Amino acid sequence: MPKILFYPDNRVVEVEKGESLIRAAMLAGVHINASCGGSSTCGKCRVIIENGKVNARPSAKLSADEVSQGYVLACTTTVDEDIEVRIPIESQMGDSRVALERELETVTHGGFLSAKSLVDLIGEFNINPATQRLYVELPPPNLEDNVSDLERLRRELNRQHGISNFQVDISVLRGMGALLREADWKITATILSLGGSECDRLIRIDKGDRTDKHYGLAVDIGTTSIYVELVDLSSGETLAKASEYNAQVSCGEDIISRIVYSLKENGLAKLQELVTETINKLIDRVIEKSGVELDDIVHMVAAGNTTMTHIFLGVPPKYIREEPYIPTATFMPTVMASDVGLKLPQGTRVYTVPSRASYVGGDITAGLLGSGVYRSEKLTLYIDVGTNGEMVLGNSDWLLSCSCSAGPAFEGGSIKNGMRATKGAIEQVRINPKTLEPMILTIGQARPRGICGSGLIDTVAELFLTGVINEKGRFNTEIDHPRIREVDGQAEYVLVWAADSATKRDIVITEADLDNLIRTKGAIYAGITTLLDSMQMQVEAIEEVLIAGGFGRYLQIDQAMTIGLLPEIDPGKVKYVGNGSLLGSRLILLSKEAKDVATEIAQKMTYLELSTHAGFMDSYVSALFLPHTDRDTFPTVMKRMKVY
Amino acid sequence: MAFQAPTEQYSGKIREVVIGTTNSQVIAGGQNTLAFHTFEGTIPHRPLIAMEVYDIEPQEWADALKEVIGDVWGDPVAWAKKCQDEFGADLICLQLASADPNGLNRGADEVAETVKAVLSAISIPLIVYGCGNAEKDGEILKKVAEVAQGRNIVIGPAVEDNYKSVAAAALGFSQNVAGETPIDVNMAKQLNILMTNLGLPAEKILIDPAVGALGYGLEYAYSVIERDRLAALQQNDSMMQMPIIANLGKEVWKTKEAKISSEEMPEWGDPTRRGILWETITAVSLLVAGTDILIMRHPESVKLIKRTLNEFGLMN
Q1: How far apart are the C-alpha atoms of A506 and A528, rounded to whole Å?
Q2: What is the pLDDT of residue B180?
Q3: Cα A440 to Cα B310: distance, rounded to the nearest angstrom
Q4: Does a structural domain hold residue A115?
């Protein structure tokens, strides 16, 4: 890995080949002026390469003279080898030495579950999807060989592929006679095996040989966001991905308000329509991106929380909300995609991952499967931070789960300038403790549009460490600084001025946003401590922490601890798995064995109901403080605060 | 072998908060054990009783009160003197109800005059409570702290929305602060952290847990105070080791049970005894939970509490 030495701070950092220089600086804790998110528009992140070679894109912001002196823009420069870089005075944010004294235990890259370990995960299962596409050539009928078309197909499938025992969708029969003849008796049969006691089914026949065109969809139906992946079921490869806000957001931001909406006249139908509308839109997008034909998508696996699963399938979620919180079903039948309004080909089935309880859904089952918790020897804490925060503690022997309503803050919901982790979202933030000027980087290094989860965690942590906000998330309005101001009676901090933003409006974080974020992190932390307490375990007993959720790529573990979202724990034990629900859905799509494991997980997991748990509320209130009311449990953060 | 009662040893100790000046100071806290547990620890200072004085003439107060303080309640100075000289109050708690923006809305200077007058008339230490409007209290307590400079009084209640100005005033003029949070252990601790972060010494802080009267959340207040205490003593939590002050008089005397006449509720018995007992039972319960300073209203209730303390050997 290339090593970068920054002058005048004399800080060294190692990064992956091809990493941009500005991210390297951020990683090293070196403050460089960067107000456009790294989109190369502000031209403020000028640095001088003193030694070594870099890949720098030419920029109109630099004169020929400067280029000859070694000037580059840090945001458009990538690193392949060891280099030495000087930050010129004009790019420094005041006295950067203060920043130096900070203890940085940055684990940004190490914290991410790498592509390789994802392959390892899947490697645990053989690719063996529930659907098979089989090429069959049938001898045309004649007066001697005059069995029916279906019998003929059955006979040949048995003869050529050893498959005889299956049922047939009526829709297949309706078109069969004409199709076989038009196809000159050369067809591809698609067989779905549902597993368990259910018989295999012939779900479609197509002309010619389409066996190499075997695709499926993995879908995560989140309360706030929906993710769709188009997967090649022969190779296991993901061909295209797309995500979008769940259109149901217009009917309420959290699960409870969705359930309330479902009780209105036609409310459930409307919600069901909105979610399929969003998925259909995303299907269009992955089709377009991949060039795959819609007709070749033969299976879909979806995971969502229990309420989302109910609504998606048109099952009233009403009783989930009422004590004693009972879902209609945790194991849902596999349904025909067309029956729920999805624009998938006739015959394509949708399998939804089983839930454990009303508030621990298929997304968690899928996450535990996808991240391998169910077979881990280590005591693992799995945290899924979505609109609801679900936590599971356990290993291959036992699993204890709980859920708290965390709110959509870390997905950008109910945050003034919040957004999902997509292009233009501010994902990394540093604030210079002396000048209180921010250094920001966006996803795709595009002009900033808003702030995503990791950026919000960074912002709260940095505002807190620099003393701009207090432990309660209140602004210190005595600080005289143009970025700290009051608008309509509410204090806020300006992260990006309108001139640098993509929206042409200031991007701010308000006191109300901070309230929401503190409540969210408090609920999650309280869930973790309640789980540990009920097993009479200490934080130290946890051997691995896996974090799932749509934070964005650069979730920084030490910052998450600074705000008390996570207990203080060796950062090396923490991994960010990204969208665990989607990961598990993909596995189930690719492997029948994985589906059986998901069933087992949903059956064996224990569920702890927090609403009736005596200690939870107390833990929650004590967590509504930065980092926490019980400061002794955050010694590292307390030490870091003193440096400021 | 004689029976030996089991005892607990605690790792923590309640801080001593000194109120008033050398000649006439009182000290709250200092114990290393639970309330009345003299058999297993030391309780260097007995619980204190502050008696309430209002800066405006009370309206619609119970007859039981009118009988004993009706003669002075139009004059805060006379009222305070009576509490000190006749009723044996350990401290006076002056409640600045006149500052309430929804009432007389008196300004800081005006209420500070009353504070000055009361201070010059009494020798026992003073607690000054604002009107309960956070913003207004922030303003007036600043002035109060200033005019009381040198008397080491308690100002309060500091709440989440005004703790900065109240703590700054106390710090600037060397006074103590009672920090009030809504019956919650964690919130009490959070406010203490916020105030000490501003530089206010922990020895200048009292915890006001916003108690309720008998029948109006007393059991809740009881368990929260008990938990405050256990955090301080058992867990040695430094930010919970402040003495506890309970502003109970006004809670008790606004209840129907303490106020209503015998004509309206003949089956409830003698209203005077009823009101006094209502206050006494509330106060005793809060003492057992761990309260260090009681803010009370009726002289007979005060007498009963003193008798109780005496019988427990705590009046020496």
Answers
A1: 36
A2: 98
A3: 66
A4: no
Place of tokens 């998330």: A473
Give the pLDDT of residue A113: 44
What's A56's domain CATH number? 3.10.20.30
Of A474, A497, A514, the one marking the end of a domain is A514
CA distance, residue B190 to nearest chain A CA (Å): 6
3-state secondary structure of B243: coil
Are A560 and A602 found together in one domain? yes
| pLDDT tier for residue B141 given thresholds of 50, 70 and 90 | very high
Q: Which helix (H) or strand (E) holds A191?
A: strand A186-192
Asked if B189 and A470 come within 8 Å (Cβ–Cβ), the reply is no
- Rounded to a whole number, what is the largest CA-CA distance in chain A? 97
Using a CB–CB cutoff of 8 Å, tell me whether A134 touches chain B.
no
For residue A93, pLDDT beyond 60: no
Highest mean pLDDT among A222-226, A432-436, B170-174: B170-174
Same domain, A352 and A336: yes
Q: How many Cβ contacts (< 8 angstroms) between chains A and B?
A: 28
Question: Would you call B187 an interface residue with chain A, using a CB distance cutoff of 8 Å?
Answer: yes
The pLDDT, as a whole number, for residue A109 is 38
pLDDT of B18 above 80: yes
How many whole angstroms separate alpha carbon A443 and alpha carbon A425? 5
Q: What letter would DSSP give residue A281?
A: H
Domains observed in chain B: 17-309 (3.20.20.20)
Token digits for B32? 């290393």
Query: Which structural domain, as residue segments, surrounds residue A32?
Result: 3-101
**For residue A589, which of A275, A326, A215 has the smallest C-alpha distance?**
A215
Domain end: A494, A514, A534, which one?
A514
Judged by CB atoms closer than 8 Å, whether chains meet at B194 and A472 is answered as yes
Picking from A515, A622, A629 by the largest number of B CB atoms within 10 A of its own CB, the best residue to mutate is: A629
A139 — phi, psi (to 5°)?
-70, 130
Residue A118 located in a structural domain: no
CB contact under 8 A, A472 and B190: yes
Residue A471 with chain B: CB contacts under 8 Å? 190, 193-194, 197
Average pLDDT on A413-426 reads 89
In the numeric block, the tokens 């969708």 are attached to A169
The domain spanning residue A284 has which CATH number? Answer: 3.30.420.480
pLDDT for A571: 85
Model confidence pLDDT, tens digit, residues B24-65: 999 999 999 999 999 999 999 999 999 999 999 999 999 999
For residue A249, is it within any domain? Answer: yes
Distances (CA, A) of A48 to A6, A73, B29, B302: 10, 9, 63, 78
Phi/psi zone of residue B270: left (φ > 0), alpha (ψ -120 to 50 degrees), beta? beta
What is the number of structural domains in chain A?
5
- Count of C-beta atoms within a 10 Å radius of residue A14: 14
A533 shares a domain with A390: yes
Same domain, A557 and A636: yes
Spatial distance between the Cα atoms of A634 and A320, rounded to a whole number of angstroms: 36
Closest CB to A471: pick one of B184, B185, B190.
B190
A110: pLDDT strictly greater than 70 = no
